[in-house]
């Protein structure tokens, strides 16, 4: 028993020495800025499991929930109380960048943490009811260009939230100019919004592809475009992208992590590499498949600038529609 | 017969040992809550909500537990009405009229048994009504646009006081308080923060579950503490069961009428179970006329209101499940629970969460059978539990409430907030301000605001859109009636209810 442990220990030591210089000792904490059961909670728990399976961490990964202000409470906590904790990662997504861009976390901005990486995404879609006169995204956008108040959109986020922004991103890419006039109806969740579109009360739905699966399969909803770079894999393969219809609009709702700012360089290096290893693993591919996540993983060096760009883009759009002064 | 298929799937969900266990537990606790005077079904369900979170129950199990408590409370209300002449909850008020005289004549056991059978029949009729009506109404709800929803919520608010409501002004105050609380947090139609005062924890608004548990459960605890922990009641004798089969059969028409009338009263917004039992009793009295000896311990006087209030309990679930508009206080609490489980009531729920909807409906049917079994042979247990001093119950309920709320969000801020709501609820109840309108304001206020905003966006700011469809006009008319009728007939009806009770034997 003793020998076995020693050998295992020695092997682990050599492995980690050769592979990476720094490794967190003991328990690692993953902060999910929402109640159990939501997307961020899922990110933490599934990543924690796979990390343990792959022996990327020595101890266990513990998920801690800290809900409030759409991630703002956790962000403030990371920036102030945990600023040099190198064993802490925090789940984030496009919702985080949206709120940062719109100054919804008072006194805080995206440069106050280190962005580690993304592990997959859910892509935005624009859809209409099955009896709608619009057959493709261009027809819909032409109608918007002709009369900005002519097409009404419904989505599951607040005004200025991600679902609303996706409409604006697409309309802007299509060349529409009166963005603030485009009517957007906000519902409590995507399902409620879809019901109104399927029922014919509202013209078009904006949301993520995973939300629409049910109504898409039943044939009640016609998806005009997915806002991804290429066609999505699997059962979503029939949906045309906005790009192939000549409208260069992208709307990935990514899932990933940030960590505190005042942590050593090698700690950041370790986490970035761990996320890379995790993303490439078969175990993670299985998690993505069973949870409807679509591949999305900017290269390590690019993620930070991806986040900065996304924040900038959202900030500009929000200013344009008058949400930010 | 698509419905039958769904119902079978529902049974498959409800009949798993795990869910069955919680249905049985819910039915038992519900009956107990119902028979404790002062503790109504809305409070009962609110007290059990934290337990569902503490145990980390899956959504369908949590809903099965709470609906069983709801059904159980409707059964339990009659026990103290009959034995003590004190209604366990408001809907059981009419049961006092003939139930207590029966008990005085030494037929307490008979009254309890026949009322359990009547409750079963009423509930069965109501649940069958629910099964037939709900899917139809859910499909119909797809034709509701924002303007129609706005009118529907207006209708819900207009009928809020209900016909039995006491002080309309206090109802308005309560509803306004609820709406005010609901405006805290982000306004989804403009994306701006309201009344958060820069406190990050308030940015997502105030959780209804927190408010409900605080207002109902914690304030209830404070009331118990104030009553110096009470000693419990002295044990009551029940006598022997002499009920004959012939007697049961002779009340069958009464059970049918009562259940049906109750169901209709339950479906109507604002009417609720109290009206259900009142109408059933009054109708029975006028149908039988001189043949009955109502008020002196006529067996049909026990059957009618019990069938009525249990029918109404199932009926009240119809608008809640299909339209998201609760027909009574307890269904409002159930609605809050559904929303916090991330399930949106309405047509979508019947397709996407069919297992939950039909699981709950099947659990109602199963729960009924369980309740009948619990309430006839085991009635002695409840009667004995009626005399357990509340001081033993208090610490358990407090502990569960705190652990449950903490397990939702892992935030101590929420615990302080719940206590604030509890103290607030205690003060408001002292001022005789009802709790249910607060919850309805909290739940329905934001929905009404959202739909008004949407209707105006869709019509480009034209207000006439709010009454441009026949459906919307119909809803506005009913809302108008709901507002006017109670002020005209309310006092009259209440006087008759009071007189009816006064005519009965004097309570001791």
Question: What does this molecule look like?
Answer:
The complex is a heterodimer of chains A (325) and B (508). Chain A is α/β, with parallel strands linked by helices and 325 residues long. Chain A has two domains: 2-121 and 253-320, Bordetella uptake gene, domain 1 (D-Maltodextrin-Binding Protein, domain 2); 122-245, Periplasmic binding protein-like II (D-Maltodextrin-Binding Protein, domain 2, 3-Layer(aba) Sandwich). Chain A is built from eleven helices and nine strands. Chain A has helices spanning 2-19, 39-53, 72-80, 94-101, 137-146, 162-173, 190-198, 209-217, 265-280, 282-290, 300-320, and strands at 28-32, 61-65, 88-93, 113-129, 153-155, 184-186, 204-208, 221-226, 252-260. In chain A, helix 4 crosses helix 11. The longest helix of chain A is centred in the last third of the chain and has 21 residues, at 300-320. Chain B has a two-stranded antiparallel ribbon with strand order 1-2. Chain B has helices at 2-14, 17-35, 41-54, 59-84, 95-140, 146-158, 168-182, 208-226, 245-250, 252-267, 272-288, 299-315, 317-323, 329-340, 347-352, 354-375, 379-385, 393-409, 412-430, 436-458, 470-503, and strands spanning 185-187, 192-194. The radius of gyration of chain B is 22 Å and the shape is globular. In chain B, helix 2 (17-35) crosses helix 16, helix 7 (168-182) packs across helix 20 and helix 11 (272-288) packs antiparallel against helix 12 (299-315). By secondary structure, chain B is an all-alpha fold. The chains are: A alpha/beta (325), B mainly alpha (508). The A-B interface holds A 35, 37, 64-70, 72-73, 76, 102, 104-106, 149, 152, 157-161, 183-189, 191-192, 194-196, 198-199, 201-202, 214, 218, 323 and B 142-146, 186-191, 193, 198, 200-204, 342, 344, 346-348, 351-352, 408-411, 413, 450, 453-454, 457-458, 460.
